[in-house]
Amino acid sequence: MKNYRLSWTRSGREERQVSAVSYDLASAEEYKALKGQEDGVTDVQIIDVKPGGWPCNGSR
Predict the structure, then answer these.
(1) Per-residue pLDDT tens for 15-58?
(2) By CB neighbour count within 10 A (0-12 exposed, 13-18 middle, 19+ buried), where does 22 fall?
């Protein structure tokens, strides 16, 4: 099973934020939509996560 995390930018912060939780693809898509509705949040992306590790290069 592949795992995914969310990455986004928030107004007032220079660096991208990354979720601490990993999701399956269907859940990641659902949480992406919810995260995109938060005030000050832009450029929400779904990113691949290596098994048991940090996000891989590349995004969805």
Answers:
(1) 999 998 999 999 999 999 999 999 999 999 999 987 766 555 55
(2) middle
Q: Do the beta carbons of residue 6 and residue 18 sit within 8 Å? A: yes
Closest to 32 in 3D by CA, of 2, 60, 1, 3: 60
The amino acid at residue 53 is G
What three-state secondary structure class fits 2? coil
Helix (H) or strand (E) holding 34: helix 25-36
pTM tops 0.85, yes or no: no
